[in-house]
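Appendix C: a fully annotated inverse folding record. The material below is reproduced so that readers can follow the format used throughout the book. The structure is listed first as tokens, followed by the designed sequence.
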């Protein structure tokens, strides 16, 4: 459902050539790392994925399996050793403003206030005037509910507020794709629940393609159209679950719990199989 009140508050900010659909295709991606201790370590094994524009996709997999590596490759921050990523039919060869990453730590600039941090993201959009940037920054700060804190310093914010600022900073340049690496893992359950609601509301309004990595199966079911299970390292896609539950979803609902327990059982089963392989 479109939140029209919210949508009308947001400025029309994209030039026509910037409003790409946000499709992502990952084809045959494998990745190895040279490490001093363990020699050559394989992080990813033949990952193939087709993510449609506007889809919300969650990756779940054990710690160290290669989730961040996959996200970094999709962002263009890391190069795969085999295969490639296509974003709207163009090969991804480096980072770009259309695919922004939100990291586990909010990675805000401590010398800038909330407004300054969101404005910083808008430097990625050179065609905007300073006035447009200010309006867009203000609208996103409102969108994440921090208008009273626009001029607060980063150290004055709670963990949840910092993640909200990071979210506003990532959304403000209007990227086609938002890649989120465990953005909620350091937060308490209540703050997380509030952010799940916020993110669903904003995603339904702005319709970005979102790829989110998490350890938390319920979180994945609450947010994703698809939940993709990855194996222990090297990460391989084990299963791709469709989650057709209506939105907005409540993480505490029984329907959601049923999906989550089904997926958790599959995850445990694969872990057992993977370990004995
Ligand atoms: N730059 C690097 N150099 C060497 N090894 C690396 C590098 N980046 C990742 N690795 C290795 O690749 C594997 C996958 O790492 P990655 O960070 O992608 O896992 P992850 O699934 O995100 O883990 P976590 O859930 O703990 O965040 C790990 O064994 C890690 O040690
Ligand atoms: Mg990681």
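Designed amino acids, in order:
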């Amino acid at each position: 459902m479109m939140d029209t009140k919210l949508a009308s508050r947001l400025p029309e900010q994209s030039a026509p050539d910037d409003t790409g659909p946000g499709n992502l295709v990952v084809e045959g991606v494998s990745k190895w790392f040279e490490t001093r201790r363990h020699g050559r370590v394989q992080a990813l094994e033949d990952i193939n994925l087709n993510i449609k524009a506007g889809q919300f996709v969650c990756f779940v997999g054990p710690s160290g399996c290669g989730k961040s590596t996959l996200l970094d490759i999709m962002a263009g921050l890391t190069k795969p050793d085999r295969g490639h990523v296509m974003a709207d039919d163009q090969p991804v060869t480096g980072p770009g403003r259309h695919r922004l990453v939100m990291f586990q730590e909010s990675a805000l600039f401590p010398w800038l206030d909330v407004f300054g941090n969101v404005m910083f993201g808008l430097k990625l959009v050179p065609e905007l005037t300073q006035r447009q940037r200010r309006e867009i920054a203000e609208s996103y700060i409102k969108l994440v509910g921090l208008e009273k804190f626009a001029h607060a310093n980063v150290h004055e914010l709670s963990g949840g507020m910092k993640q909200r600022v990071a979210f506003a900073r990532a959304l403000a340049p209007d990227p086609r794709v938002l890649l989120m690496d465990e953005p909620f893992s350091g937060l308490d359950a209540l703050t997380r629940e509030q952010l799940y609601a916020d993110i669903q509301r904003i995603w339904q309004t702005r319709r970005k393609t979102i790829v989110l990595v998490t350890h938390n199966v319920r979180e994945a079911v609450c947010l994703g159209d698809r939940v993709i299970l990855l194996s222990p390292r090297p990460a391989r896609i084990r299963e791709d679950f469709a989650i057709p539950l209506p939105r907005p979803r409540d993480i505490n609902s029984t329907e959601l719990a049923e999906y989550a327990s089904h997926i958790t059982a599959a995850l445990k089963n694969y872990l057992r199989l993977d370990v004995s392989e």
